[in-house]
Amino acid sequence: MFRSYGSALVLAAILCVPRAGAAQGDPARPVAGGGISVSGWKGVIDANEAAAGMTLDNAKLAQEGDVLQVTTGPATTYWNPANTASGDYTVKATFTEPKYMSLMNHPHPYGIVIAGNDMGTAQQSYLYCAAYGNGNFIVRGFGPAPFQMNGMGAARPAVHKAAAKDQPVTQEIALSVKG
């Protein structure tokens, strides 16, 4: 689907999810050589994708130097349980989509996760902020009681927009907590 590059800090996870457009004839495509090869990191496939037979082996999390590389087909959330924080902190990552919409016919988001609880279980919950290569972003809570902070997403000048299909786009995403 796309590649995201970033370094996630403090209770951070990587979120790569398709939009509702996936149900419109744009199914997730398995990634060759998939799985998690980064020590300590875990992942989970979206429940709808899992029901369709997708597994973590259909997406890929690898590390090249100090950069995490995500290649995803199904909607996936990755996290490292060793990355925790309390008090004041910021989670920040940079994502590069080398060829915007090169494998799909609509934008797909990628972003960061904070405040994870019960990760990897049916009761998991977290807050995520994700950007799209079309200049939109979303902030949502995921879990047994999901919520949307900005509806179906919104465009913002700070969110970069790819020049065209197959062109690169880079996003810097950060969430700060004052605790």
Task: Give me the secondary-structure topology.
Blueprint: E1 3-6, E2 13-16, E3 35-36, E4 42-45, H1 47-51, E5 60-64, E6 67-71, E7 76-79, E8 89-97, E9 110-117, E10 125-131, E11 136-142, E12 147-148, E13 154-155, E14 169-177
Parallel strand pairs: 3-5
Antiparallel strand pairs: 1-6, 2-7, 2-9, 4-7, 5-6, 8-14, 9-10, 10-11, 11-12, 11-13
Structural key phrases:
mainly beta; eight-stranded antiparallel sheet; 1 helix; 14 strands; disordered N terminus
- Estimated radius of gyration: 15 Å
Beta-strand content bin: 35-45%
Report the biggest beta sheet as strand number plus sense, adding barrel if it closes. Answer: 8 strands, antiparallel
Q: Name the helicity range.
A: under 10%
Q: What's the total count of β strands?
A: 14
Helical run tally: 1
Counted up, domains total 1
Poorly predicted regions: 1-12, 18-24
What structural class do the secondary elements suggest? mainly beta
Element string (H = helix, E = strand): EEEEHEEEEEEEEEE
Coarse morphology: globular
- Give the averaged pLDDT, no decimals: 85
Task: Give the terminus-to-terminus CA distance.
Answer: 36 Å
